[in-house]
Write a structure and sequence with these properties.
Shape: globular
CATH topology: Lipocalin
CATH architecture: Beta Barrel
CATH class: Mainly Beta
Radius of gyration: 21 Å
Structural class: mainly beta
CATH superfamily: Outer membrane protein
């Protein structure tokens, strides 16, 4: 059913794309705490997300957009999974005081809005998923049994105790806003040493309710602006007197690169991976609401690299402070993203 839904949506997209815009991009992201420091496959243990990006669909979905003289909208459809585990994997019974087993399989439908003349970016996304399925647990067991990533950890035995066991419907919506504050526009130049942006994000639904605020810093930017983090082959903006135009001569860069760091504070209203399902929860084990930390410090840092505006590579290192009373004091993990554009983007 999920494959059929995805194919139908892609077919619909091909029939309803904005005029004058063409292109296609595939982005694959893998998270794993073995890509972090000093981890043993516990807490947030990993995830996988595969997305297709294409010109905006005319269908009016519930995504945030607003008028801007020089703006682009890009639609996204993806499929992914995440997994959380306790530190004690060998025990089949519930381990109290540890993190609950939790997983999510999901489809995501999103929109990226880029206001290049105002150096603003809004990414909004609707998630439909299931918590409590057997697939993430079976995948982790396979990785441990075959010692992927050099793991010598025991095969996890407690996935039957996961939150929402046997599958529970999840609906969530999130919006992320980024505003560049150190320059007047979002265009890229040959080299820019430092770019600072303000960042905010809201999650709402029966999976997560969060409010986040922070900063993002881009360093050593070679042919790269804030939009290159999430989207390749952006045309450059140039000024001719009082008029702003797209400069397509600068569009096809051979190489783009930047380092980034993003610290933020997250205010937690609800976290189903700890507190259980929002409605009719019958999970074997959850963390008491009063033990959940409501203010967290988070960061991610890494680099972006794009080659010939076709292949993009990204590494990000994430960290998060203690999520609940008695939990791990600080957890970190890494993520690798590979993107490629089989059909080159063109906005003329």
């Amino acid at each position: 059913m999920k494959k059929i839904m995805l194919l139908l949506l892609l077919f619909s997209a091909s029939k309803n794309m904005s005029q004058g815009t063409k292109g296609f991009q595939v982005v694959i992201t893998h998270d794993n705490d073995f890509l972090g420091l000093g981890n043993e496959d516990e807490n947030y243990t990993g995830g996988l997300k595969v997305e297709a990006l294409f010109p905006e669909m005319k269908t009016k979905w519930l995504f945030i957009k607003y008028k801007s003289e020089h703006s682009l909208n890009v639609s996204r459809i993806g499929l992914g999974a995440t997994a959380y585990t306790p530190q004690d994997l060998a025990e089949a019974a519930v381990v109290t005081g540890d993190r609950p087993y939790a997983s999510l399989l999901f489809l995501n439908f999103g929109n990226n809005f880029y206001a290049m003349d105002r150096a603003e970016m809004v990414q909004s996304e609707f998630i439909v998923g299931l918590m409590g399925t057997s697939i993430p647990g079976n995948a982790q067991s396979h990785l441990h049994e075959n010692h992927w990533f050099g793991s010598e950890r025991p095969i996890p035995r407690g996935w039957d105790n996961q939150i929402g066991y046997n599958g529970s419907l999840i609906l969530n919506y999130n919006t992320r806003f980024q505003k560049q504050i150190t320059r007047a526009d979002g265009s890229d130049t040959d080299f820019n040493c430092f770019i600072a942006s303000g960042v905010g994000k809201i999650d709402i639904g029966n999976y997560m309710i969060n409010l986040q605020a922070g900063m993002k810093f881009n360093f050593i930017n070679i042919n790269s602006g804030i939009f290159q983090d999430s989207y390749v082959n952006m045309p450059t903006l140039i000024k001719e007197g009082k008029e702003i135009k797209y400069d397509y001569k600068e569009q096809n860069r051979k190489f783009r690169f930047s380092f980034f760091a993003e610290p933020n504070i997250r205010f937690v209203g609800y976290n189903a991976t700890l507190e259980g399902l929002m409605f009719n929860d019958k999970s074997a084990y959850t963390i008491d609401h009063s033990d959940v930390k409501r203010v967290l410090f988070e960061f991610n840092a890494g680099f972006n690299m794009t080659i010939c505006d076709f292949l993009s590579l990204k590494y990000a290192h994430f960290g998060r402070s203690r999520e609940f009373e008695g939990g791990k004091s600080f957890h970190n993990w890494g993520a690798v993203t590979i993107g490629f554009s089989p059909a080159r983007w063109n906005y003329k």
